Amino acid sequence: MDLTHLDEQNKPKMVDVSDKENTTRIAVASGMIEVTPEAYHAVIANTAKKGPVLQTAVIAAIQGAKQTSTLIPMCHPLMLTSVKTDIQELPELPGFKLTVTAKLKGQTGVEMEALTGVSTGLLTIYDMLKAIDKGMVIRNIQLESKSGGKSGDFTRV
After folding, report:
1. 89: buried, middle or exposed (CB in 10 Å: 19+, 13-18, 0-12)?
2. Given Cys at both, which of 70, 80, 86, 89 links 99, Cβ 3.0 to 4.6 Å?
3. Per residue in 42-97, pLDDT tens?
């Protein structure tokens, strides 16, 4: 299998997508952060010293998705048409699950944008709670589904 990000001289390159068809592309990614009961209750009670944790994480997730091409070297700058977030409270963990859905009509997929959004949102939760809990664990950052494009659809089973 040829590597798409190397040219004939084995130098890195960004893939040329100019001949690809514009299609609607959607990617959904998720991840979780496990926190102590004390940190969880600070979020739920909105008493964390740095402010509203979940609302800030949502903004960070959106910003992260929008800035993916500045963070991941071979990603194309994309004109996202939508970034949606959902944060699920997991009291039994305790912790939170963040899901990001990225969408556009274009020539390349949005998987990296959804994954970067999740990562950025979860890191923001960590940053805002680290004074309470330095042992938080971020895990299971993964693509849940994608649609559109030549490679077809994917859904995690």
Report:
1. middle
2. 86
3. 999 999 999 999 999 999 999 999 999 999 988 999 999 999 999 999 999 999 99
